[in-house]
Amino acid sequence: MANVLVIESSARKQGSISRQLTADFVAQWQAANPADQITVRDLAVDQVPHLDSNLLGGWMTPADQQSAAEQAALKLSNTLTDEVLAADVLVLAAPMYNFAIPSTLKSWLDHVLRAGVTFKYTENGPQGLLTGKRAFVLTARGGVYAGSALDHQEPYLRQALGFIGIHDVSFIHAEGLNLGEEHQQKGISAAKAKMAEVA
Fold first, then answer.
1. Confidence class for position 198, pLDDT limits 50, 70, 90
2. Number of compact structural domains in the chain
């Protein structure tokens, strides 16, 4: 049995293509792996604060010297990090906002990319500690960006996930969603076909 952690990051709760892709992916995954445990964290519902002085203080200040705000920030960061540590499979749903990932997803990453927990510094440079995990990234894009210089999603997420030791990453793009109905259906169909292969 595997633990699957799903991270939703679309600001739209209705009519979201990335949420539609996530629902389809989870349904296919559960059909193929009925014993697996699915955990969903929705960043539009339970928003994660941006990196701030309270979180930095929670990480760096001795426990007996932390303020109440620092303790609260650290508690949330620990919860988010523990979810990632417990997961065997990570599923990130990432609509493209202004050529990149939503700021909510960036905030989540800022909480879970933690020195000494998900990566460590060595004399040979940083080393990821989350080896052996798989990740799937489901994107929804208004235009067609895969492989172009305007795609700041895939390179960034590959680097961020690789930094913590997750190198087995599959990207599933639904592209051309704002280029007309034909392009939209083609983009969604292509993404669903790719999902059927990997799930």
1. confident
2. 1
